[in-house]
Amino acid sequence: MAISPITTQFQTLKDTLSKAASISLPTDSDFPAVSQRWSDFNKPTPGAIINVTCEEDISNTIKWANTHQIPFLAQSGTHGFPASFTALHNDGIIINLRAINTVNVTLANGTATIGGGTITKEVIEAAHAAEAHIVTGVCNTVGVVSALMGGGMGNLISLYGLGVDNMVSCRLVTATGEVITVNSEESSDLWWGMRGAGHNFGIVSELTVKAYPQVNGGVHWSGMLGFPGSEEVVGKVWDAVLGMGGMGRGMGLTVVFVRLPPDFQALMVLQLWYAGSEDDAKKAFAPLFDLNPVMNMGSPTPYTHINAANDIPCAKGGRKPVYSAGLEKLDADKLKSVWSQWEKISGLPDAGQSVILLEYYGHEKSQEVKDEETAFPWKNCNYHILAVLNYTDAAFDADAEKFGNKFRETLQQDTKKMVYLNFATGDEDPSAIYGCEERQERLRDLKKKWDPDQKFSFYHPIKL
Length: 464
Prior knowledge:
This protein is α+β, with helices and mostly antiparallel strands. 27% of the residues lie in helices and 23% in strands. Strand 8 (167-173) and strand 9 (179-183) form a beta hairpin. It starts with 9 loop residues before the first helix and ends in a 14-residue tail after the last helix.
């Protein structure tokens, strides 16, 4: 393993860090644990990981890195996967926020403060203990703050709107190491950009969000329906979904194309969520139950366990290139074509754990916040569909890329190209991630003001 050229400079950084902070080098025993990512595909290869424990550590690390002209990238849950990560090599560092993971819920004020390194599971558990709901994603080990800044998609958006709609204020460490407060009153121009593109302007040490009283005592209903897959079945099931007329308030649906043991038969699985009782859930999803699924599982579920079905696909390790598309409309013919493509590639050796995920939530609440109020551009996207390839041999990379490009072409060939930032591969045109030229120009103006030297350039960067 190559020794980083920056190793000799760390003593000056150590002198500025808190006692609990640490520096992990590739030769250290803890490095595999702190550097492990959800995907080994396109991962960064830093010369060191700085394990910070407070806001001052972040600030001092950025100032040190700037003094020595060392590139840096922040991480929390280590689930990010953009192609731009490969530009961080052993002459750069990662600032690991994971120890900054406090969650303080004040339901009386309708707010919660979340540390920059907090993961989804920690927020949900803290909220549940306070008899509150907070908008998060559906993967327990994803960093919450970064996910919310990118849009904040998840079950609760049908009740409370997108994550960006629920951001109240943040503490931001800028490209110079300065710490500022950003909200609708302080640095209000930047606040627009933070909600949808915040990764480009600094490192958030603390985020304040809205908190709401629990629905149904914090016990929701979750279920899983499974169908033996074929193009005919996929078309029939999806037509039934479309026939429901949309996801209503307190409803969420994830479609999964997956091969399950022991025989690894190709299945179409529907993961259902409902914020209420079992009886009401079954009424809401009645058209899907009427299809007589071969797998029919469901039960009242404390919200602390609502993401449990995703714990396996959210596990770290393996090569997992991701390809995604956001769609306003999705007809059965396109989904059947995707099924056919996936069934073929997932049947190959070493690719059997590859899946298709289609997230479908109610967006009526999020659309109450006008498009121009945040930098998030795609409130008109009803469906977010992604292909997650999963294999171990790098020799399969070319086949994966070929599949991913065809997958996106199939879905977007006759429609505007849109992609949810948190699902983006990183090879898309900036307009697909950040929207129209007017939005991009506004983001570039903010970039020129707050990060003219493009220090924050490894996660879907806004280029000047």
